[in-house]
Amino acid sequence: MQSQTALIKNDSLVLADGSSWAIAAGNNYGANLVKILSDTMQLKSGTKPGKHLLAIYYGHPTEKKQHHHTALKFKTSKDNKVTTTTCHLFPTKGSNEIALHLIHLSLIISSQIETRGGLLIHGALAVKDGQGVILAGPGGIGKTTASQRLPQPWQSLSDDCTLVVRDNKGFYHAHPWPSWSTFMFGGEGGRWDVQYSVPLKAIFMLSQSEQIFIDPLGQGEAVCMLTECSEQASWTLTENFDDKQRQVMNLQRFDNICEIIKTVPAYLLHINKTGSFWNDIDRQLLTN
Fold this sequence. Notes:
Order of helices and strands: EEHEEEEHEEEHEEEEEHHEH
Radius of gyration: 19 Å
Distance between the termini: 54 Å
Number of strands: 15
Protein backbone atom coordinates (compact mmCIF):
# COMPACT_ATOMS: atom_id res chain seq x y z
CA MET A 1 0.00 0.00 0.00
CA GLN A 2 1.36 3.44 -0.87
CA SER A 3 2.31 6.09 1.64
CA GLN A 4 -0.61 7.93 3.17
CA THR A 5 0.90 11.25 2.05
CA ALA A 6 0.63 10.31 -1.62
CA LEU A 7 -2.94 11.41 -2.20
CA ILE A 8 -3.63 11.05 -5.90
CA LYS A 9 -7.24 12.19 -6.20
CA ASN A 10 -8.95 15.20 -4.64
CA ASP A 11 -12.64 16.04 -5.09
CA SER A 12 -14.54 18.51 -2.95
CA LEU A 13 -17.86 18.33 -1.09
CA VAL A 14 -19.41 21.45 0.48
CA LEU A 15 -22.60 21.28 2.59
CA ALA A 16 -25.08 23.88 3.81
CA ASP A 17 -23.73 23.75 7.38
CA GLY A 18 -20.47 25.23 6.15
CA SER A 19 -18.51 21.98 6.31
CA SER A 20 -16.18 21.28 3.42
CA TRP A 21 -14.55 18.02 2.49
CA ALA A 22 -11.65 16.99 0.34
CA ILE A 23 -12.15 13.37 -0.73
CA ALA A 24 -8.93 11.76 -1.85
CA ALA A 25 -7.43 8.37 -2.70
CA GLY A 26 -4.24 7.20 -1.07
CA ASN A 27 -3.38 4.66 -3.76
CA ASN A 28 -4.39 3.55 -7.24
CA TYR A 29 -6.85 1.00 -5.93
CA GLY A 30 -8.69 3.72 -4.02
CA ALA A 31 -8.75 6.14 -6.96
CA ASN A 32 -11.43 4.15 -8.80
CA LEU A 33 -13.61 4.11 -5.70
CA VAL A 34 -13.22 7.88 -5.29
CA LYS A 35 -14.18 8.37 -8.93
CA ILE A 36 -17.41 6.37 -8.51
CA LEU A 37 -18.23 8.21 -5.29
CA SER A 38 -17.58 11.59 -6.91
CA ASP A 39 -19.56 10.80 -10.05
CA THR A 40 -22.51 9.56 -8.00
CA MET A 41 -22.52 12.63 -5.76
CA GLN A 42 -21.73 14.99 -8.68
CA LEU A 43 -18.63 16.36 -6.97
CA LYS A 44 -15.98 18.46 -8.65
CA SER A 45 -12.21 18.49 -8.45
CA GLY A 46 -11.14 20.36 -5.36
CA THR A 47 -9.38 23.69 -5.84
CA LYS A 48 -8.37 24.04 -2.19
CA PRO A 49 -8.23 21.77 0.86
CA GLY A 50 -11.45 21.26 2.76
CA LYS A 51 -11.83 21.55 6.50
CA HIS A 52 -12.15 17.78 6.52
CA LEU A 53 -10.08 15.32 4.53
CA LEU A 54 -11.31 11.80 3.79
CA ALA A 55 -8.34 9.73 2.64
CA ILE A 56 -9.31 6.38 1.13
CA TYR A 57 -6.92 3.43 0.88
CA TYR A 58 -7.95 0.29 -0.89
CA GLY A 59 -6.17 -2.99 -0.20
CA HIS A 60 -4.31 -4.78 -2.97
CA PRO A 61 -6.21 -7.75 -4.47
CA THR A 62 -3.50 -10.06 -3.09
CA GLU A 63 -4.83 -9.18 0.36
CA LYS A 64 -8.16 -10.75 -0.49
CA LYS A 65 -7.29 -13.99 1.28
CA GLN A 66 -6.94 -12.16 4.56
CA HIS A 67 -10.21 -10.24 4.22
CA HIS A 68 -13.27 -12.30 3.39
CA HIS A 69 -15.74 -9.65 4.58
CA THR A 70 -16.27 -5.96 3.93
CA ALA A 71 -13.69 -4.83 6.45
CA LEU A 72 -13.94 -1.15 7.38
CA LYS A 73 -11.20 0.52 9.37
CA PHE A 74 -10.99 4.26 9.84
CA LYS A 75 -9.58 6.75 12.30
CA THR A 76 -9.93 10.50 12.68
CA SER A 77 -7.34 13.04 13.76
CA LYS A 78 -7.04 16.82 13.72
CA ASP A 79 -4.00 18.85 12.73
CA ASN A 80 -3.61 22.45 11.53
CA LYS A 81 -7.39 23.01 11.62
CA VAL A 82 -7.97 20.12 9.19
CA THR A 83 -9.76 17.01 10.44
CA THR A 84 -8.47 13.94 8.64
CA THR A 85 -10.30 10.63 8.46
CA THR A 86 -8.19 7.83 7.08
CA CYS A 87 -10.19 4.90 5.82
CA HIS A 88 -8.90 1.45 4.84
CA LEU A 89 -11.08 -0.79 2.70
CA PHE A 90 -10.30 -4.26 1.42
CA PRO A 91 -11.52 -6.42 -1.45
CA THR A 92 -14.25 -8.92 -0.67
CA LYS A 93 -15.67 -12.01 -2.34
CA GLY A 94 -19.14 -10.57 -2.75
CA SER A 95 -20.52 -9.28 -6.05
CA ASN A 96 -21.83 -6.21 -4.23
CA GLU A 97 -18.38 -5.14 -3.05
CA ILE A 98 -18.40 -1.67 -4.62
CA ALA A 99 -21.88 -0.85 -3.33
CA LEU A 100 -20.96 -1.88 0.21
CA HIS A 101 -17.79 0.20 0.13
CA LEU A 102 -19.71 3.22 -1.16
CA ILE A 103 -22.23 2.82 1.66
CA HIS A 104 -19.44 2.73 4.22
CA LEU A 105 -17.69 5.80 2.82
CA SER A 106 -20.87 7.85 2.70
CA LEU A 107 -21.67 6.83 6.29
CA ILE A 108 -18.26 8.02 7.45
CA ILE A 109 -19.12 11.44 6.01
CA SER A 110 -22.60 11.51 7.53
CA SER A 111 -21.30 10.42 10.93
CA GLN A 112 -18.96 13.42 10.98
CA ILE A 113 -21.91 15.65 10.08
CA GLU A 114 -23.73 14.27 13.13
CA THR A 115 -21.02 15.77 15.35
CA ARG A 116 -22.17 19.15 13.98
CA GLY A 117 -25.85 18.59 14.77
CA GLY A 118 -26.84 16.89 11.51
CA LEU A 119 -28.59 13.60 10.81
CA LEU A 120 -28.89 10.99 8.06
CA ILE A 121 -32.54 9.96 7.68
CA HIS A 122 -34.06 6.97 5.93
CA GLY A 123 -36.45 9.12 3.93
CA ALA A 124 -37.14 10.63 0.53
CA LEU A 125 -36.52 14.35 -0.06
CA ALA A 126 -38.97 16.42 -2.08
CA VAL A 127 -39.20 20.14 -2.74
CA LYS A 128 -41.87 22.59 -3.87
CA ASP A 129 -41.55 26.37 -4.06
CA GLY A 130 -38.18 26.17 -2.34
CA GLN A 131 -39.54 24.26 0.64
CA GLY A 132 -38.13 20.83 1.42
CA VAL A 133 -40.03 17.98 3.06
CA ILE A 134 -38.90 14.49 4.00
CA LEU A 135 -41.13 11.45 3.49
CA ALA A 136 -39.66 9.10 6.08
CA GLY A 137 -40.33 5.60 7.28
CA PRO A 138 -38.99 2.04 7.47
CA GLY A 139 -38.10 0.01 4.41
CA GLY A 140 -41.10 -1.09 2.36
CA ILE A 141 -43.41 1.65 3.62
CA GLY A 142 -43.57 3.27 0.16
CA LYS A 143 -41.09 6.16 0.21
CA THR A 144 -39.81 5.54 -3.31
CA THR A 145 -43.27 4.99 -4.77
CA ALA A 146 -44.63 8.10 -3.06
CA SER A 147 -41.78 10.30 -4.24
CA GLN A 148 -42.15 9.01 -7.81
CA ARG A 149 -45.85 9.90 -7.81
CA LEU A 150 -45.32 13.56 -6.92
CA PRO A 151 -46.56 15.81 -9.75
CA GLN A 152 -45.03 19.10 -10.85
CA PRO A 153 -44.24 21.59 -9.45
CA TRP A 154 -43.12 19.08 -6.83
CA GLN A 155 -39.65 17.68 -7.47
CA SER A 156 -38.21 14.50 -5.99
CA LEU A 157 -34.54 14.97 -5.05
CA SER A 158 -33.93 11.56 -3.50
CA ASP A 159 -36.10 8.53 -2.82
CA ASP A 160 -34.25 6.68 -0.07
CA CYS A 161 -32.05 8.83 2.18
CA THR A 162 -31.69 12.50 3.12
CA LEU A 163 -28.86 14.24 4.95
CA VAL A 164 -30.03 16.99 7.29
CA VAL A 165 -27.52 19.65 8.38
CA ARG A 166 -27.74 22.64 10.73
CA ASP A 167 -26.21 25.99 9.80
CA ASN A 168 -24.57 28.43 12.22
CA LYS A 169 -27.90 30.21 12.77
CA GLY A 170 -29.64 27.03 13.86
CA PHE A 171 -31.66 26.52 10.67
CA TYR A 172 -31.92 23.07 9.10
CA HIS A 173 -31.24 22.24 5.46
CA ALA A 174 -31.74 18.96 3.62
CA HIS A 175 -29.39 17.44 1.04
CA PRO A 176 -30.37 14.54 -1.25
CA TRP A 177 -28.37 11.40 -0.49
CA PRO A 178 -27.65 8.54 -2.92
CA SER A 179 -29.60 5.28 -2.99
CA TRP A 180 -26.57 3.01 -2.83
CA SER A 181 -28.74 -0.07 -3.21
CA THR A 182 -29.06 0.83 -6.91
CA PHE A 183 -25.44 -0.34 -7.32
CA MET A 184 -26.21 -3.82 -5.98
CA PHE A 185 -26.87 -6.96 -7.99
CA GLY A 186 -25.37 -5.47 -11.13
CA GLY A 187 -27.38 -2.26 -10.95
CA GLU A 188 -26.24 0.82 -12.82
CA GLY A 189 -26.45 3.14 -9.82
CA GLY A 190 -27.42 6.76 -10.37
CA ARG A 191 -26.44 10.37 -9.76
CA TRP A 192 -27.54 12.78 -7.03
CA ASP A 193 -26.58 16.42 -6.64
CA VAL A 194 -25.53 16.01 -3.01
CA GLN A 195 -24.26 19.58 -2.69
CA TYR A 196 -27.69 21.01 -3.53
CA SER A 197 -29.79 21.77 -0.45
CA VAL A 198 -33.22 23.12 0.46
CA PRO A 199 -34.58 24.54 3.74
CA LEU A 200 -36.27 21.74 5.67
CA LYS A 201 -39.86 22.73 6.46
CA ALA A 202 -41.42 19.49 7.70
CA ILE A 203 -40.94 15.75 8.20
CA PHE A 204 -43.77 13.38 7.31
CA MET A 205 -43.62 9.85 8.70
CA LEU A 206 -45.45 7.58 6.26
CA SER A 207 -48.17 5.12 7.18
CA GLN A 208 -50.21 2.96 4.80
CA SER A 209 -53.95 3.55 5.08
CA GLU A 210 -57.16 3.39 3.06
CA GLN A 211 -57.76 7.11 3.63
CA ILE A 212 -55.36 10.04 3.27
CA PHE A 213 -55.00 12.27 6.29
CA ILE A 214 -52.36 13.83 8.52
CA ASP A 215 -51.97 13.46 12.27
CA PRO A 216 -49.69 15.74 14.29
CA LEU A 217 -46.95 13.97 16.25
CA GLY A 218 -45.96 14.81 19.79
CA GLN A 219 -42.29 15.50 20.29
CA GLY A 220 -41.68 12.24 22.16
CA GLU A 221 -43.37 10.14 19.49
CA ALA A 222 -41.60 12.03 16.71
CA VAL A 223 -38.22 11.49 18.37
CA CYS A 224 -38.84 7.74 18.64
CA MET A 225 -39.92 7.40 15.01
CA LEU A 226 -37.10 9.55 13.69
CA THR A 227 -34.56 7.61 15.76
CA GLU A 228 -35.68 4.41 14.06
CA CYS A 229 -35.38 6.03 10.62
CA SER A 230 -31.89 7.28 11.41
CA GLU A 231 -30.71 3.91 12.72
CA GLN A 232 -31.96 2.17 9.58
CA ALA A 233 -30.00 4.61 7.43
CA SER A 234 -26.67 4.03 9.16
CA TRP A 235 -26.66 0.73 11.02
CA THR A 236 -23.75 -0.78 9.06
CA LEU A 237 -21.38 1.96 10.25
CA THR A 238 -21.29 0.69 13.81
CA GLU A 239 -20.69 -2.99 13.03
CA ASN A 240 -17.06 -2.69 14.10
CA PHE A 241 -17.63 -0.20 16.94
CA ASP A 242 -17.10 -1.12 20.57
CA ASP A 243 -19.75 -0.42 23.20
CA LYS A 244 -18.30 2.96 24.16
CA GLN A 245 -18.18 4.17 20.54
CA ARG A 246 -21.79 3.12 20.00
CA GLN A 247 -22.87 4.86 23.17
CA VAL A 248 -21.21 8.12 22.17
CA MET A 249 -22.76 8.03 18.69
CA ASN A 250 -26.22 7.09 19.98
CA LEU A 251 -26.22 9.91 22.54
CA GLN A 252 -25.10 12.43 19.92
CA ARG A 253 -27.77 11.23 17.51
CA PHE A 254 -30.49 11.39 20.16
CA ASP A 255 -29.52 14.96 21.07
CA ASN A 256 -29.54 15.95 17.39
CA ILE A 257 -32.98 14.44 16.82
CA CYS A 258 -34.41 16.23 19.85
CA GLU A 259 -33.08 19.55 18.55
CA ILE A 260 -34.43 18.93 15.05
CA ILE A 261 -37.90 18.13 16.36
CA LYS A 262 -37.93 21.36 18.37
CA THR A 263 -37.49 23.33 15.14
CA VAL A 264 -38.94 21.21 12.33
CA PRO A 265 -42.56 20.01 12.70
CA ALA A 266 -43.19 16.30 12.27
CA TYR A 267 -46.43 14.59 11.22
CA LEU A 268 -47.83 11.15 10.55
CA LEU A 269 -48.96 11.07 6.92
CA HIS A 270 -51.43 8.31 6.10
CA ILE A 271 -51.31 7.50 2.39
CA ASN A 272 -52.67 4.99 -0.08
CA LYS A 273 -51.54 3.93 -3.54
CA THR A 274 -53.85 6.19 -5.56
CA GLY A 275 -54.76 9.31 -3.59
CA SER A 276 -53.28 12.80 -4.05
CA PHE A 277 -51.50 12.94 -0.71
CA TRP A 278 -49.43 15.95 -1.83
CA ASN A 279 -52.52 18.14 -1.55
CA ASP A 280 -52.67 17.30 2.16
CA ILE A 281 -48.98 18.20 2.47
CA ASP A 282 -49.64 21.53 0.75
CA ARG A 283 -52.44 22.36 3.16
CA GLN A 284 -50.33 21.38 6.16
CA LEU A 285 -47.39 23.51 5.05
CA LEU A 286 -49.69 26.51 4.74
CA THR A 287 -50.56 26.19 8.43
CA ASN A 288 -46.94 25.95 9.63
